[in-house]
Amino acid sequence: MREALFIKQNSERWKAYENGKTQSPDELAESFISLTDDLAYSKTFYPNSNTTRYLNGLASRFHQSIYKNKKEKTNRFITFWKLELPLIFFKYRKQLLYAFAFFLVFCLMGMLSAMYDDSFVRLILGNNYVNMTNDNIAKGDPFGVYKQGSEFKMFMRIAINNIYAELMAFAMGIFLSVGTLYQLMQNGIMLGSFQYYFFSKGLGVQSVLVIWIHGTLEISALVIAGAAGLILGNSILFPKTYSRMESLKKGGKDGMKIAIGIVPIFLVAAFFEGFVTRHTEMPIWLSVAILVLSLIFIIWYVILYPAILNRKLNTNTPDIDEALF
Asked: Which segment of the chain is annotated as a signal peptide (predicted)?
């Protein structure tokens, strides 16, 4: 069909749609379906014409008019952490694995560097920190740094720093994932050399029982933030069937959901570091309990629960989006 004939046959109907003469929900839905059919036909036979652009704009306005008043469920806030975020974890489980693998390699690099170069720890952690810790070890309080200042001030300072660090790990993914890998490298090498330093002083087990009270959640969340950055960067590198811009939008949206979704984990980690870690005299069983429960939570919420949820939804609910929204 010639484009002029196509316009002549349908122009009156399109003008009626544009003027908003269709009012009832049933008519609105029927008209929207008809309009999208016209748009599909136009895209097929007149892809670069003004008619296609006109119909695309008209269909967009129709879509907005249908969904602009759609109400969110009252439990949307809960649903995000209960369903949406775990399903995103499952969807990007490979990126989570890659982030963990890279971070582990960087930690080993930091540990080995500290093992074979005595000056490496000072280079990474700074002379002031190493000197202060050496003094604390001499005083019999190797983890005295966690007892400085008030609990609340430490909590706030650590929470702000950690959230900033995780947002940077995510945002740096825009540089084709290289920026995120650099952030993971910095933190991984620092952690490896930091942990080796205490083992070299004969305080390895004690450091694990003290530092990993908050470190289990903090480091886990940092790795997850790295995965969010890889999602962002890989959306540009590997757009698959999407245009790069569309792929970037999807990757950025999912990565941001992860970055926002793990903020509570950083807040809990900061609470532990500000209020709990300083009590180095606590019973060993309590320290182990906090550490193990934190690790179980991460494994359950990020790995096991998303897989169970995905299998359940695929079995019982054909449309996952319907289950979410």
From this structure: none
Structure-token pair, residue 45: 């036979």
Tokens at 236, concatenated: 């540009």
Q: If you search the block for the tokens 């002379």, which residue do you land on?
A: 127
Contacting residues for 301 by C-beta, under 8 A, at least 6 apart: 86, 89
Report DSSP letters for 170-236, one per residue: HHGGGTTTHHHHHHHHHHHHHHHHHHHHHHHTT-HHHHHHHHHHHHHHHHHHHHHHHHHHHHHHHHH
Cα–Cα distance, 289 to 108 (Å, whole number): 26
**Is the per-residue pLDDT at 14 higher than 60?**
yes
State the Cα–Cα distance between residues 103 and 142, nearest whole angstrom.
26
Q: CA neighbours within 13 Å on the CB side: how many for 250?
A: 16
Specify the pLDDT at position 317: 43
Does residue 143 contact residue 209 with C-beta atoms inside 8 Å?
A: no
Give the C-alpha distances (Å, rounded to integers) separating 260 from 82, 83, 95, 214, 300. 14, 15, 17, 19, 19
Rounded CA separation 263/260 (Å): 6
pLDDT digits (tens, 9 = 90+) for 173-197: 999 999 999 999 999 999 999 999 9
In the numeric block, the tokens 């940092």 are attached to 222
The three-state (H, E, C) secondary structure of 285-318, written as one string: HHHHHHHHHHHHHHHHHHHHHHHHHHHHHHHHCC
C-beta separation of 218 from 162 below 8 A: yes
Both structure tokens of 49: 């014409």
Q: Which whole number is the average pLDDT over 254-263? A: 96
